[in-house]
Amino acid sequence: MVRYRWVFCWMFILGWGWGQHDLTHAQYFGKNKIQYTQFDWKVMETPHFDIFYYETESELAEMAAAIAESANKKLSAIFRHHLTRRIPLIIYSTHNDFQQTNTSPYFIPESTGGFTEFAKGRVVLPYNGSYFDLKHVLTHELVHVYQLNILHDLQKTHPRLKMTYPPLWFIEGMAEVFSEDWDTEADMILRDLVLSQNLLPIPEIWRISGSYLMYKQGQSILTYIAQHYGEDKIVQMLRDWWKVKDFEEAVPLALGISLVELSRQWMYALQKTYYPVLESRDTPDQTYTRLAFEGFLNYRPAVVPDTTQLRFCFGSNRDGFPGIYYLEGSEPLSKPKRLIKSGQSARFESLHLQRSSIDVNAAEQLVFVSKSGERDALYIYDIPNREIRWRAEFDSLIALSSPAWSPDASRIVFSALNNGGMSDLYMVTVSDQHLTQLTHDVYHDRHPRWSPDGRWIAFSSDRNPWGDQGAYNIYRYDVEQGDIQPLTAGNHIDNYPDWHPNGDYLVYNSDRDGIFDLYLVDLAGNTIPVTRTTTGFSDPRWTADGRSLVASALVNHRPALFWIETPDSLFQQLGFRRDIGDTMTVTMPDSYAVWQPQRTQGEYVERDYKPRFTMDISSSTIAFDSDLRFGGGSVLVFTDMLGNHQLGLVLSNNSGEMGTFFKNFDAWVGYTNLANRMNYTIGGFHFYDEYQEPRNFEDVGSYAERQYGGMVALTYPFSPFRRASLTTLLRRTEQDYYIINDHKNAFLTSLFLNYTKDTSLMFYGTAGPVDGSRYSFSVGHTIDFDDVQLGYTTFVADARRYFRLGTRSCFATRTLGLFSTGDNPEYYRIGGSWTLRGYDWRSLEGTKIILLNNEVRFPVLNRLLLGFPMGTLELPGTEGAIFFDMAYLGEEKFQAPLGSFGLSFRLNLGIVLRLDVAKKTDFDRISRETVTQFFFGYDY
After folding, report:
1. In the beta sheet, which residues pair with residue 650?
2. Which single residue of 139, 232, 897, 932 has CA 20 to 30 Å from 473?
3. How far apart, in Å, are the Cα atoms of 606 and each of 45, 126, 324, 893?
């Protein structure tokens, strides 16, 4: 039995794809981060920044450089602080490229607009086509740079044994306050929270930690402090952090009131601000008919052009996987049918429903966008036949969004980002996939919609005098002439235009009255409101008869779908008749001058990027065991600025005396390259340990083993869900048997092949997957060149399937097969909470094992609130399971099966705590003893 094996854990982490896979779901499963593109990286050196970019985004880099230097000057004055080092700023031209970054080992969700990491202080962010968003996100992340720099300086000047950081809502709220003004979206979210009574007091905001609601509540609290106590108080709380142990002490020190009193004042101020809104406005569900109740997100409707009944598609995550659904009728409880499911295949990796609309033509052909490998692709789905009929992707375009059908269904217009990050409108002909670029400039053009006669394309754009401040207006593009004419104007956000079936006017959403309501605009630019609600609407789509709309609105901090009937009086205000086909000729106003983005002007030096290693991790430990032996070790990790090249070093020693100090050294050094799709690791090692069990040798007593050699590992991801890997080792082994005074020395070479697929779904806070599947198949062979009977072959098959029973419940099954043969076969061990429950941890062994696990997983408590005098403690959901396990073990042949059954309870506190209550059985009788086991770890 191995006494000191922890060094091999570090060897795995450092040498076997550190940063390649998301291993948080346990064991060897997890999805793959893929480097599709070989970026030609450059470095732009400005007075305070090193900006890393690739050649196709040089124009974007110049914009980012100017924004960064301007923001740095602004923040230096706000914080009364000067940065003590240069800031690495890594820019990606699209979110698809951003998701390939190796600066973080974790997967980048679509909701992440950028991040600042601790190890090297890097700011990493993508461009989405909006200059205003680039300013906001870049300034937001630079606020984090200042926060970390100030806290680091405080720790040096006022050292504390254990320094805690301010709460996350304060950190993120401050970044929002100093990077953008309070806007309509933030106002909408807080208004909805207050009116739905979901607003959390300040001491309880930790319950929504990390969510978008936390960002906006934090921004609201600090905006209140700035307005009533002064903006300088926010900075003071940060600069005085060394004087306090938590935020509860920081508030009275800076403001002279308690945290509870600040919370009361802030919540009361919001109530006074938002409750009066109910006098003139109603919540959407009080006025309009709600559609499609299930699901956390229901949005992006697309109505089928049909005059008989309401039929539409929409986006939803009702089963956990984002998908597109189809619904007939306006009855609130109608059950939709799922058409497209994403998140389980490379073809539909992500539908981008957070930023992309969908569309349906009269033949019920659905057009939508999905990430498929390196770039996005357009798809046409035939709804009646339930099949994909057409697919197109374009080499020069990375990110696509909001496709829309032409009236004759021969062309599709959409918005796209090219390799350099510029956002424009494009048109593709369905018959031959011929691509035409319609706009070509730095402005953010989005949400195009075709007019019923096919002459015009309406879209939203920031090509107005206030665009660099975040304003969008509605425009129409002349398909024949290429002219662009404004339909709306003003320093506000106008979005999601949709033509009325008669072509005389459009509906769109706008915050021109402070709330995102729906408006009508005619071709002369006259505008009137359609809705007046507390949270507003977006994504409006006309029904075929032009008498109603389907749109989404925020209700209880979730987007929901509504059916909106439009009265005749509304149309009469614009002077139009309701009859479809009635048209009029109008003269369009002239366009007006627009802004240009700021670019750095000759204030930089350019150079090619060359990898240079700097340290990311340095860790040491000292250990002591019951045999009066001391041990210790160090771990060092070095990476380059882009995270593509990683070097790891592990040293440890468990010697009991000076004479064996060097003999007992364990060492590992490895280099991992993640720059390309094929990841590889090269490493060398020396390992020494003592064993108390002889494995398959009889009466030979304990023995010592020394191993040294090298290894090469290759990993190739076929998609985010499937990968293959190959590992080969060449090593020298020297085994000394104490009692029989024997030696076995040999050169061994091993080759291991593995194929893994993971399409599982795991909710935040759950103890294991609730949907999808996981498969892993491995084969390994070790050759003994010296023929001392140390060769062996192994086979491992692990198949897991999760059958959904409810939102957070499922039937989970696993079949695990372990097989080893040869002169020195591997002995596998099972038993305990992760394998065969009810039996002692790793108490059963064999060279052949078949393990069957079956359980029904279900939620027991969604959450548990415990009240204490000092406040409320919220525990996450408790899950339960009814399980049945069965195992066959053997060497030459299988023994009689063993089994167990019982109840299991799991609590996810970051580490999953497990309590198993089991009965054992040999399938002849059931044991009288009830075994209770406590352990930790995710579900299989």
Report:
1. 635, 668
2. 139
3. 6, 21, 46, 69
Nearest to 356 by CA among 275, 277, 446: 446
Residue type, 715: T
Q: Tokens 């978008």 correspond to what residue?
A: 212
Q: How many CB atoms lie within 10 A of CB 67?
A: 23
pLDDT of residue 564: 94
> For 417-565, where are the alpha helices, taking DSSP H only?
none
Interval 887-931: pLDDT, tens: 999 988 899 999 999 999 998 887 889 999 999 999 999 999 999
Which element (helix H / strand E) includes 572?
helix 568-572
Listed range (274-283, 481-490, 863-872) with the worst mean pLDDT = 863-872
The single residue listed with the structure tokens 């027991």 is: 860
Return the structure tokens found at 144. 């984090």
The residues facing 435 across adjacent strands are: 428
Q: Beta strand 123-126 with 87-92: parallel, antiparallel or unpaired?
A: parallel
Residues contacting residue 66 through CB under 8 Å, at least 6 positions apart: 597, 598, 599, 600
Residue 522 has pLDDT above 60, yes or no: yes
Q: What is the DSSP letter of 60?
A: H
Instruction: Give yes or no for residue 594 having a pLDDT over 70.
Output: yes
Closest C-alpha to 178, from 111, 235, 133, 132: 235
For residue 120, pLDDT over 60 is answered with yes
Are 399 and 416 in contact, with CB atoms under 8 Å apart?
Answer: yes
Give the pLDDT of residue 16.
38
**Secondary structure of 615-683 in HEC code, one letter for each residue:** EEEEEEEEEECCCCCEEEEEEEEEECCCCCEEEEEEEEECCCCHHHCCCCEEEEEEEEECCCCCEEEEE
Nearest C-alpha neighbor of 310 from the set 500, 529, 565: 565
Q: What is the DSSP string of 731-758?
A: EEEEEEETTTTEEEEEEEEEEEEEEEEE
Query: Rounded to whole angstroms, how far apart are CA atoms 110 and 98?
Result: 10
* Cα separation, 589 vs 583, whole angstroms: 18
Q: Residue with structure tokens 């935040």?
A: 764
CA angle 256, 225, 243 (to 5 degrees): 50
Q: Are strands 703-719 and 679-691 parallel, antiparallel or unpaired?
A: antiparallel
Helix (H) or strand (E) holding 224: helix 212-229
